[in-house]
Amino acid sequence: MRRTRDIAALSLSTLFLLTLGACTEGEEEEGSEAAEGETANADEADTESESESDSGETTTESSETTGGTGCSPVGVPQGDAALSSWLEQGSYLDWQAEGAVHPSSGPHFGGVRTFVDDCLSQSLTAGTTSAVGGASVKELYGDGDEVLGWSVMLKVAEGEGGDSWYWYEIYEGQVYGDGVGITLCTNCHGGGQDFFLTPWPLQ
């Protein structure tokens, strides 16, 4: 009888160990599967994040490429004090320019030479109104070969009217215009493309 009980106890112990091993293996497999699932989910999240990032970059690049006219206004200042200093520093000298000084066809004190920034250049070529920030600078020479003043037109608002431009003129220290939509300027320039009178392309 005792031998029978020992055999039964041994059988139960063996069965318990086998069951425990099976449970442990199952838990390990479940843990492994869970870990693999978490890894897969993390990979998917990373992939989605990268896709969103890539998409965002593409959208931004596309927006930068196609938005507006594609020009970058140089930030011409307004007001006599700031603008006269900006002009004296020659901040416009790398713009497109006429090849040489020539007699003015308007009331601009003798010899002149016109410079045009990229924004205004693009609109003149396209036959459209300039983007806000487009600008032109006309050097004023009088009867000599030294710059004695400047005339400036700066696009400050969308639209086709003369009041969409800021006008400025200074000659030999005397300011003749400094403001938006100045009638003295718009009356003369009204016959030009978007109030720009100098022949285009620049000669």
Automatic annotation (TrEMBL):
Keyword Signal, does the record have it?
yes
**Where would one find the signal peptide in this protein?**
1-24
Ranges of compositional bias, category Low complexity:
56-66
PROSITE patterns in the record:
PROKAR_LIPOPROTEIN (PS51257)
What keywords appear on the UniProt entry? Answer: Signal
- Name the domain of life: Bacteria
Q: Give the span(s) annotated as Disordered.
A: 23-79
Q: Where is the composition biased (Acidic residues)?
A: 25-55
Q: This protein is called what?
A: Cytochrome P460 domain-containing protein
